[in-house]
Queue: 2 jobs
Job 1
Amino acid sequence: MPSYTPPTRDMQFLMHDLLKVSQSDVAGYDELAPDFTAAVLEEAGKLASELLSPLNPVGDRQGCSFENGVVRTPEGFKDAFDTLRAGGWTALDLPEEYGGQNMPVLLGTAVGEMFSAANQSFTMYNGLTHGAASAILAHGSEAQKATYLPKMATCDWTGTMNLTEPHCGTDLGLLRTRAEPQEDGSYKITGQKIFISSGEHDMAENIIHLVLARIPGGPEGIKGISLFIVPKFLVNDDGSLGERNAVSCGKIEEKMGIHGNSTCVMDYDGATGWLLGERDKGMRAMFTMMNEARLGVGMQGLAQAEIAYQNALAYARERLQGRAVTGAANPDGPADPLIVHPDIRRMLLDQKIFVEGGRALLFWGAEMIDRAHRMEDAEADGLISLLTPVIKGFLTDQGFEMTVLAQQVYGGHGYIEEWGMSQFVRDARIAMIYEGANGIQALDLVGRKLAQDSGKHVMAFFGIVKRFIKENEGNATLEKDFLDPLKEASKQLQSAGMFFMQHGMKNPDAALAGSYDFMHLFGHVCLGLMWSKMALAAQQALENGASDTTFYEAKLMTGRYYMARRLPATAMHLRRIESGADPVMGLKAELF
Ligand SMILES: Cc1cc2nc3c(=O)[nH]c(=O)nc-3n(C[C@H](O)[C@H](O)[C@H](O)COP(=O)(O)OP(=O)(O)OC[C@H]3O[C@@H](n4cnc5c(N)ncnc54)[C@H](O)[C@@H]3O)c2cc1C
């Protein structure tokens, strides 16, 4: 059975050595003293490793069940949810006035990563509720906020997002669910939604569905879509639960992974709903939820890679097979542990650099959100908007790849269910698909985000890289191993952007054929920047006489591996991008 050790040491390094949170100007960060964050992370880590992680294989084996419209979650899920509720873990970063704890998103992200690594299916019930609550907070009326948010903060009522229909997932302009206006200001919602995560279950008193639907007479396509609040149980004026609404679960899906999370067909048969935000501006309101969810899904990719890596590492230390080619490392035993073999080390290091580098990127992203929300910092807001598709697409693609590598370290045992590695691979796979499949993230990045505000945000990103390199010129520890490769990779990213500018207008296929490579090129440059910054932080800690020298020395060594072995992927991505549209579009569809 796999185990999970909360990576609290690494998280403390990121918050205090890298982001230096307690010296930051972000409002509320002065409360994040090392002792305080250590206490929160330790407590959350305990819940992750002792409560949620043991339930992960249970959820995988049992899955959810569906009988007469009722969905039951796996054994132990409901009690665990009650424990999180009782401890106030369900709304760390929501405002205090609505029952949250008003903590920075950064701390919520650290806790979320641990819960998600320990049990992705379980954590989705809370994660979707948080996303729905954020959308209500941003777009709801005062009455809507007062009615729904306190109950959603405690997860007594959970939330969902309802976009997908049988005939449309990516192209939501095709959606058919209708919302008929009623005299009392409510709407009757009719239609079918599919693949709705946490759509029906037995862990909460009420479920608040956020549903995209079309008000008759509005514009065609994406411009005529509005967002509605549709509760499973209608809420009386005094806040108590009233009648059952006309929304029901038609079935739950059998699927490859995340068996503990119910994926539901939801039927709306004239269900009562209320407009959230402005009429016909539903996509904008839903994007509040989707942007948050996209970062959350990026986190899922990272989290599954982390737990898979931890277990692969433990296995590689214990499993005895073959001898080190340079001489026996375990002469008294029948063979050496797997970790002596260069190819096993390659796989473990690929995982280690990804989880540590990806976590740095995720935390940096969380800091940008705090900066944008708490300081109304427009630059941070623009930068996180640019980086959201990179964080979602790159971290989930690479996260999945790393779970496969972790499985590979186990050889045949990785393929056998008993060892639990297969679940990580299966659970990680969905993150590449939902919240906008990764191809759509790449399209969003190249087609929309790059040129947003006349390219201001991508220029800001290049400015950050350039400044970092300049400020550290002449630093012998960094220059050759970190700054030179970062400079080269960043130039390649700029060249790719130039290629799109020169060719994309004439032939949009030339840009879109390279969009996926661009997303990965961008992701690598982000990780190159993160590793360079972490190397500097480690160097400074060592120079300042930190006691934990092995931790910081390992950071520097690990970073060198990233810069030497993974970052050069940028050259390949640029070559592919510069090959343009022809290799991809030349072959006629009938010749495939
Ligand atoms: C387990 C699970 C949970 C889910 N949870 C939810 C949920 O809670 N709420 C919800 O609303 N939905 C949910 N979904 C739906 C999910 O978000 C969609 O499946 C996803 O957005 C893709 O839509 P689709 O399946 O219709 O694929 P399609 O839209 O048919 O796309 C198929 C493929 O074509 C690609 N593609 C489509 N258009 C283009 C284009 N213009 N250019 C390039 N490539 C393109 C896509 O990237 C994809 O690879 C869930 C799905 C699953 C499997």
Note: The first helix runs from residue 8 to 18.
Job 2
Amino acid sequence: MSSGPDQQHGVYSAMTTALFSHSDCDLHVEPPGHPEQSARLAAVAHALAGMDLLRLDAPLGTDTDILRCHPAPYIARIRKAIPATGWSQVDGDTYLAPGSLQAALRGVGGVCAAVDLVLSGGASNAFVASRPPGHHAETNTAMGFCIFGNIATAAKHALDHHGLSRVAVVDFDVHHGNGTQDLLWNEPRVLFASSHQMPLYPGTGAENEVGAHRQIINIPLRAGSTGADMRAAYATHILPKIVSFAPELILVSAGFDAHRDDPLANLNWSVADFTWLTQQICDLADAHCAGRVVSALEGGYDLDALAACAAAHVTVLKDRGYAR
Ligand SMILES: [Zn+2]
């Protein structure tokens, strides 16, 4: 570890925000009409195009990375399910194309490389723009457009490879991060906090789902609720618990489908609400872990809202990166 709490007020060699992505993510082609399309990543890339970011190719994730969350037979099953042409279906709404494994591996590799870079002091924080998303993928199950649990993999990488003791994961995608919860259910070194609309897909995420070590916080939000409701819920139920946990790194499952224009859900958050929430996360990171935040794209299906929210999110990360 080249950085730690003693450097919270120190000078960083690379006061910047890293952006990890890769063109291979476009190889994950879903059938026409499917909401999880390459156009999403194009919209995010366009929105971030003018920003001064450290732009890096997401490397391919390795079996070592994935095996911290998913067993070998599951990885083998995904490899075997990759079709030579067209699509294979691995879940009610999750399809694999010939390039889907390549794309999914960029997501795993991107988050792990982002953790490496931020923990080494090579960047203040990082955003990983990849697809498919990851937070619905359970230990043995691809679902909800997701194949591998990217953010849970990043958490395990930070713990087991880098030797961290406490990692917080904040998931503000409008859908419950059931996969992340499943992968981290027995992991006492991770505080997992998820806000999500309920009832809504995937149906999990009730307040009484607390993990094996009471280290999971689920905050269901009612359909039609507003950004003000979200801010109150975070201020009351999530942010104080992250403070008590004193994480050494904060990971973010950044889905932008709680925006009021998103077609897959019914929350009424604005771009300003995503800015506020990112600021709160960065405040906690500044106070507890030298500003170290690694955020990864999850959902967001209205292209204009996705672009605006991702730009707002990364703008906060960038401003904080330079301020360090
Ligand atoms: Zn979502």
Note: Strands lie at 17-21, 54-57, 88-91, 94-96, 125-128, 167-171, 190-197, 216-221, 249-254, 293-297.
